[in-house]
Amino acid sequence: MASSCANGSVRRASRRLGQIYDEAFLACGLKATQYSLLSQIARSEQPKMRDLAQVLVMDLSALGHTLKPLVRDGLIALQVDESDRRSRRVLLTEAGQQKYAEARKISERVSQVFDKTFGVEETVKLREALDFIASEEFARSLLDELQSSET
């Protein structure tokens, strides 16, 4: 039976996928959330923490908390930004680059199986829909509509 609440459905699906990805990443000692962070850091090339938090739709304190084990394990380093000393940049260390390369192979394998199981076209549509839902544009539109319907 389909849920009547989009939020509940997305959260359940997210938890299920998180469990599947966590199981897959056990082989390299990461959690799915940690891989996502390493992946975004690698793509962003030394992002500022604020920019990284924005892309990941997280607040700074939650990001800082999530980064601590990666710093502790020597996979990332936090460095004061040269142009704005109030900001810190997040960098992959050499060990982090190696761990990311190892985990990326696992992620690619899970993605292939996901595509095969869910369907390639459906997967593309799902990612597009979820990316839109995660966007500032969608959030602003939805919140504006909620506020205007209250008055």
UniProtKB/TrEMBL annotation:
Gene3D superfamilies: Winged helix-like DNA-binding domain superfamily/Winged helix DNA-binding domain (1.10.10.10)
GO terms, molecular function: DNA binding; DNA-binding transcription factor activity
InterPro entries in UniProt: HTH_MarR-typ (IPR000835), Tscrpt_reg_MarR-type_CS (IPR023187), WH-like_DNA-bd_sf (IPR036388), WH_DNA-bd_sf (IPR036390)
Residue span, HTH marR-type domain: 3-135
Pfam families: MarR
Record's keyword annotation contains DNA-binding: yes
Highest taxon of source: Bacteria
UniProt keyword annotations, A-Z: DNA-binding, Transcription, Transcription regulation
PANTHER family cross-referenced by the UniProt entry: TRANSCRIPTIONAL REGULATOR, MARR, TRANSCRIPTIONAL REPRESSOR OF EMRAB OPERON
Protein name stated in the entry: Transcriptional regulator, MarR family
Biological source species: Pseudomonas abietaniphila
